[in-house]
Write a structure and sequence with these properties.
This protein has 20 helices and no strands. It is mostly helical and about 500 residues long. Helix 1 runs antiparallel to helix 4, helix 12 packs antiparallel against helix 16 and helix 13 packs antiparallel against helix 14.
């Protein structure tokens, strides 16, 4: 097993936290900032038919490598693996800015994703290694809040950059952020301690890669692949079975047995899966309702969604006090209740309702995610032995990413099935409502009928999202009652 984590001076901890927050921001903002710049990039490089792959390949390679980096961090040290991952990410970022075509950009985005898979789980694990259990909850709250902040800042940064600079700067802006983060860690984070020789479970890694890649491709590209998506799902299931069989006999498995023996870690993984799936109900479909059904502007849709991003960091920073005053279970359940309450509030939306219902729901969902997500991560890290803390943390983050893909597929299928049932003869009704010129050209009775059908279809999406969010409360209840952050000896020189 790995030796104990390096000793860190208390005065250096805030600097290490700052470096981890910078690196997390760099990885988290990447999707939103690029999405804002893509129309400009497509106008320059062409290749519109490949647009979806610019995002899909990044998420795919990131998701596959998250648990692998988590295990590598346990075996070979967080510091070393963080620098390797961040370097890959920055090289990919630089190359994206020089991409001569969209096909090359997709290749460089894959390299970015290979690096990004290290940043989030290892930065989260580093904080767990340098802070004790009681301090850890507060530090992880700050780290978790980065996701909410990046959701607001990313589109603004992207819009500003493409308005004043070449689009390549959207990628190159990562470089100074990443270099500053690495410089801080080089100076203030001690080198990893001496470790005995380890051997990564290569067979398990291969089966994991094949299973996750097949599943995510089937979910993210289902409309393009058609029936081939079913073949990929079968491949994912078979590979998953082979992975489980391999893990049972491997001397140093990719997913150690201790992960499956802890109720807290199991609860954290289930919670991550549910949070990821529920998040898509609001991120992908609430702006559609605001613009398509309520007739709101893109700005109104954006500010509505921004309330989720505001609720998340606020609740994340409060979670540490709640965990210490009550318990992991109570805090996670409260987060699940807020998540459920916000999801149920979406069911009260109607074509005649005001934006306040949507905004209240968005804030409640964001607050619920902030409480639940931070609590699950902290409880898992405090429960896991230091030797498996990296893979324990990575598994929780990995299931959240997997949940996002599954949620996108399930909720998207729900919307499409409802639209086909209600509007079988209408081609892309949502797009017709979203395009202002097309909407204004419609006769009033046709617009009212189309709006009512789309609203009813989205209502079923929110219904499924609310049902999923019930499971977030159930995941919180899986955490043993009474557990809370406990003290441990100070790790300070």
């Amino acid at each position: 097993m790995a030796v104990t984590t390096p000793v860190v001076k208390s005065s250096h901890r805030p600097l290490i936290l700052t470096a981890c927050m910078l690196s997390m921001f760099m990885a988290a903002v990447e999707v939103t900032i690029v999405a804002t710049a893509m129309p400009t990039i497509i106008g320059d490089l062409g290749g519109f038919s490949l647009l979806g792959w610019v995002f899909a390949v990044y998420l795919l390679t990131q998701a596959i490598t998250v648990p692998i980096y988590g295990r590598l961090a346990d075996l070979y040290g967080c510091r070393k693996m963080f620098f390797i991952g961040t370097t890959l990410f920055l090289i990919g970022s630089v190359l994206c800015g020089f991409a001569p075509s969209l096909a090359w950009m997709i290749a460089f985005r894959a390299l970015q994703g290979l690096g990004a898979g290290a940043i989030t789980p290892i930065a989260t694990t580093l904080i767990a290694n340098v802070y004790g259990p009681q301090e850890r909850a507060k530090a992880q709250g700050y780290l978790s809040s980065v996701w909410g902040v990046s959701a607001i800042v990313g589109p603004l940064m992207g819009a500003f950059i493409v308005s004043h600079f070449p689009w390549a700067v959207v990628f190159w802006v990562n470089v100074p952020i990443g270099l500053v983060a690495m410089a801080i860690l080089v100076k203030y984070l001690p080198p990893d301690g001496q470790r005995k020789q380890h051997k990564l479970d290569l067979a398990g890694t291969g089966y994991l890669t094949l299973s996750v890649a097949a599943l995510l491709l089937a979910l993210l590209q289902a409309e393009v692949l058609g029936y081939w998506a079913l073949a990929l799902i079968v491949l994912a299931v078979v590979s998953g079975y082979l992975l489980i069989r391999q893990e049972r006999k491997a001397p140093e498995p990719l997913f150690p047995l201790a992960l499956w023996e802890s109720k807290v870690i199991i609860a954290g993984n289930i919670g991550g899966l549910i949070i990821g799936a529920t998040m898509m109900g609001i991120s992908a479909f609430l702006p559609t309702y605001v613009q398509g059904v309520l007739g709101g502007t893109p700005l109104e849709a954006g500010t509505t969604l921004a309330l989720m991003s505001i609720g998340w960091p606020l609740a994340s920073m409060l979670s540490s006090r709640l965990m210490q005053a009550t318990s992991y279970r109570a805090t996670a359940v409260l987060g699940g209740v807020l998540l459920l309450g916000g999801s149920v509030a979406l069911l009260f939306l109607s074509p005649d309702s005001g934006l306040w219902v949507a905004r209240l729901a968005a804030f409640s969902i964001g607050a619920g995610m902030g409480l639940a997500n931070t609590t699950f991560i902290v409880s898992v890290q405090n429960n896991a032995e230091p030797a498996i803390r990296g893979i324990a943390t990575a598994s929780t983050l990995f299931t959240r990413m997997l949940g996002s893909a599954i949620g996108t597929a399930v909720l998207g299928a729900t919307l499409n099935l409802n639209l086909q049932y209600r509007l079988p003869q209408v081609n892309d009704p949502v797009q017709q409502l979203m395009e202002k010129a097309t909407r204004n050209a419609m006769e009033s009775h046709h617009l009212a009928a189309l709006t009512e059908s789309v609203a009813a279809s989205l209502h079923w999406v929110f219904m499924v999202s609310a049902i999923i969010s019930v499971l977030a409360v159930a995941a919180g209840l899986l955490i043993p009652a009474g557990d809370r952050p406990q003290t441990e000896p100070q790790r300070e020189s």
